[in-house]
Amino acid sequence: MQPIEAKGQIVIQIVQQDAEDNPVLQLDSPGVEGYVIGRSDEGSSYQPDIDLTAHNAQSLGLSRRHAALVRYRGYVHVMDLGSMNGTFINGERLLPFDAYALKSGDQVSLANLLIRVLQEL
After folding, report:
1. Domains located in the chain, CATH noted
2. CA distances (Å), 105 to each of 10, 52, 53, 76, in order?
3. Under the phi-then-psi rule, with left for phi > 0, alpha for psi from -120 to 50, and beta for the rest, what region is 111?
4. What pLDDT was estimated at residue 121?
5. What does the alpha-carbon distance between residue 110 and residue 61 come to, in Å, rounded to a whole number?
6. What is the pLDDT of residue 72?
7. Whole-angstrom Cα distance, residue 29 to residue 37?
8. pLDDT along the chain (121 residues), means of 10
9. Which of 10, 16, 56, 74 has its CA at 20 to 30 Å from residue 22's CA atom?
10. Which burial class, exposed, middle or buried, applies to 53 when counting CB atoms under 10 A from its CB (0-12, 13-18, 19+)?
11. Distances from the Cα of 118 to the Cαs of 8, 11, 58, 74, in angstroms?
12. What is the DSSP string of 5-54?
């Protein structure tokens, strides 16, 4: 399967156990800056670009600056930002600060929070 092209929009689906309707975030493909994925915290003014606090991020082990969605060589990649609990694609742990190409339908675990990344057609 072809990696997700960094053009148009992508969909991030929050995969929740025992949920009939999994929340969906739709956003533009990452540009030059990319998107930091993480959680906000009452004790800090930091706000990640994609804030997953509302999806039990803290209790599921998500770091404030957990991972990033980036554009690399024209495709969407994910990069772990040195998180404490790790980032995984389809069950395989990522090395911190290395960019990994995403394919539509990949399941990305941010610690214990599972998301699915889809190419918007």
Report:
1. 9-45+66-100+107-119 (2.60.200.20)
2. 11, 19, 23, 13
3. left
4. 61
5. 8
6. 94
7. 14
8. 91 80 88 94 89 93 97 96 98 97 96 93 61
9. 74
10. middle
11. 12, 5, 24, 16
12. BSSSEEEEEEE-TT-SS--EEEEEPP-SS-EEEE---TT-----SEE-GG
Going 102 to 23 to 87 to 47, the CA torsion angle's sign is: positive
The tokens describing 76, both together, are 């969407």
Could you tell me if 105 and 6 are in contact, meaning their C-beta atoms sit under 8 angstroms apart? no
Pairing mode of beta strands 50-51, 35-38? parallel
pLDDT on residue 18: 63
- Tell me what pLDDT residue 102 has: 97
